[in-house]
């Protein structure tokens, strides 16, 4: 008998975000697999685009903002509801089995540790009705247990795959940012926890390098960084591209001298494994999930004093490029370890375990 699974994937509407990437790549991974025993329904805003791409592999339910409210929840009964993002307000009207995927609980530290805060209450309610819980890293699991009472249900750690599964031909890409000088690169949402300012403040000490940062820099933290660039006359050394498409992203990843990611809070951190796919030296904050995901062949900052960061960077670059062939291969192999088809297969196994 075929059993029905509802994937609450409305975050797909913003593919450029970490959650949007997770939603889309998980769907792509599932589409490569066979699951005749399951009927998977995707909750998406643009059902036409998804059905064009994936055809009858999935069923499609149109997401509307109203479905965030209890009265307008879908009334169809599903055997399993998969809450793909721990913060979504879209929930089932009828509850049978419930799977929660936890990316991080950074909101406890960033917004409020008060158990009565609406975000904490929302998350606690999701935990309490879960038939099983998946985490995207061991750190995310540890963090959840640190701040919340986790029910006695099966728990699984399923690593994300690498969004870069196909290398694009970037030879005809024309960058509006100068790339003739060796440059460091990073990409992500311009949020304080991404800590891009730490790298920007290091750059006056690195006259031989430029820095290129990609992401939505039009909000307060991005404006703060732009003001710092203006005030310190770094216009010819630090460049903000704004959001970039896949071709531009792969161009900068493939051409950079190193990838830098000083984020202080990450449930997983997709950009570093994207850079690994191009065999680049990776410099990370020695915090949260990043050492777990980066592994032993990345380089780590324990704190963010500019002189110290410069020292770690230069020593790491010397080590990497003195052993370039070996290090590049280690990075590529680490990148290939994270595979969306493998992750999707693990989620299918969890579905079947819950439904059995």
Describe the protein in words.
This protein has 356 residues and is α/β, with parallel strands linked by helices. It contains 13 helices and 13 strands. The strands form two sheets. It has a seven-stranded parallel sheet, sandwiched between helices. The chain has a six-stranded parallel sheet with strand order 10-9-8-11-12-13, with helices on both faces. Helix 1 (18-31) crosses helix 13 (340-355), helix 6 packs across helix 11 and helix 11 crosses helix 12. The radius of gyration is 21 Å and the shape is globular. The chain starts with a strand and ends with a helix.
SSE topology sketch:
Elements: E1 3-8, H1 18-31, E2 38-44, H2 47-54, E3 59-62, E4 80-83, E5 97-102, H3 107-110, H4 118-128, E6 132-135, H5 138-147, E7 155-157, E8 183-187, H6 196-202, E9 210-214, H7 220-231, E10 238-242, H8 246-255, E11 258-261, H9 270-276, E12 282-285, H10 290-294, E13 299-301, H11 306-322, H12 324-337, H13 340-355
Parallel strand pairs: 1-2, 1-4, 2-3, 4-5, 5-6, 6-7, 8-9, 8-11, 9-10, 11-12, 12-13
């Amino acid at each position: 008998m075929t059993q029905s699974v509802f994937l609450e994937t409305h975050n797909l509407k913003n593919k450029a975000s970490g959650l949007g990437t997770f939603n889309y790549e998980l769907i792509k991974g599932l589409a490569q697999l066979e699951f005749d025993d399951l009927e998977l329904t995707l909750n998406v805003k643009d059902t036409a685009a998804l059905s064009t791409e994936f055809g009858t592999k999935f069923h499609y339910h149109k997401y509307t903002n109203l479905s965030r409210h209890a009265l307008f929840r879908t009334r169809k009964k599903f055997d399993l509801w998969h809450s793909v993002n721990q913060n979504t307000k879209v929930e089932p009207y009828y509850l049978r089995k419930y799977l929660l995927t936890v990316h991080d609980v950074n909101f406890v530290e960033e917004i409020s540790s008060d158990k009565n805060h609406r975000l904490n209450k929302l998350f606690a309610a999701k935990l309490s009705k879960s038939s099983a819980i998946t985490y995207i890293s061991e750190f995310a699991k540890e963090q959840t247990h640190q701040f919340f009472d986790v029910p006695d249900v099966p728990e699984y750690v399923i690593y994300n795959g690498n969004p870069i599964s196909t290398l694009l031909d970037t030879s005809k890409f024309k960058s509006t940012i100068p790339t003739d000088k060796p440059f460091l690169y990073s990409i992500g949402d311009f949020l304080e926890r991404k800590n891009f300012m730490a790298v920007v403040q290091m750059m006056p000490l690195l006259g031989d390098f430029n820095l290129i940062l990609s992401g939505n820099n039009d909000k307060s933290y991005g404006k703060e960084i732009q003001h710092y660039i203006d005030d310190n006359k770094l216009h010819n050394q630090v460049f903000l591209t704004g959001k970039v498409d896949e071709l531009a992203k792969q161009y900068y990843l493939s051409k950079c001298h190193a990838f830098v990611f000083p984020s202080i809070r990450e449930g997983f951190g997709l950009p570093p494994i994207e850079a690994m796919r191009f065999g680049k030296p990776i410099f990370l904050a020695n915090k949260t999930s990043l050492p777990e995901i980066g592994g032993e062949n990345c380089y780590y900052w324990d704190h963010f004093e500019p002189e110290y960061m410069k020292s770690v960077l230069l020593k790491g670059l010397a080590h990497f490029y003195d052993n370039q062939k070996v290090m590049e291969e280690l990075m590529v192999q680490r990148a290939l370890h994270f595979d969306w088809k493998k992750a999707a297969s693990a989620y299918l196994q969890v579905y079947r375990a819950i439904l059995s």
